[in-house]
Amino acid sequence: MFANNSKDEAKNKLLLLYIFNKFEIAITNNQITDFVMENELLNYFVLQQFLSELVNTSLLEYTQNEDHYYYLITEKGKDTLNYFKDRLSDKFLSRIDMLIEKKKKILLKETQISANYKKKSKNDYLVELKVIENDITLIDLKLDVVSNKQAKTICDNWKNNAPDIYGEIIKLLID
C-alpha cells in the first residue's frame, strides 16, 4: 500500500493509527519502521512523513520514557480511527492483526527485559539488568564484574532467563 493520492494517504494514516492502537504499547521509531518495512506496508520515506503528520495533528504522541522516544496513539487518534475504521477492509485488518500479534510478543519481551553492560575501567564492567511489567520496574540490578566475557554472559543469561532468575531472587529473599 503506497500512497499515491489523498485517498490512499488517508487510508495509510488510518492503517498506522490502527497499528498503534492494536499494539497497545509504546513503540519506538525503529520498531514501527521495522514492522512496516518487514511487511511491505509503506516505504520508509512515506512512513516517516505520515508519522510526523500524525504527531503534528495530535493523533499520535511522540514522548520520552527513560532513554528512548516512543509513539503512542492519543485519544483523538483513537476517536479518529473509530470513526473512519470502516474504510479499511476486514480482510486486510485480519492480516494486520495476525502480523501484530506475532510482533507484539517480540516487542513485549524486548521492552520488558533489558540487559546492558559498559566498561568502567580496564578490568571493571558495570552490568545493568531490569525487568519491567506494566511500566513498573520489578527489579533493577547493577553488578560489577571483572571481564567483558562475564558481562556478556550475564546479559545473555538474563535475557533468556529473567523471569526464572527474578523468581528465584524473590524466593531467596522471602524464605
TrEMBL record:
Domain of life of the native organism: Bacteria
Pfam family, one: DUF4364
Gene3D superfamilies given in the database record: Winged helix-like DNA-binding domain superfamily/Winged helix DNA-binding domain
InterPro entries: DUF4364, WH-like_DNA-bd_sf
Protein name per its UniProtKB record: DUF4364 domain-containing protein
Organism: Paramaledivibacter caminithermalis (strain DSM 15212 / CIP 107654 / DViRD3)
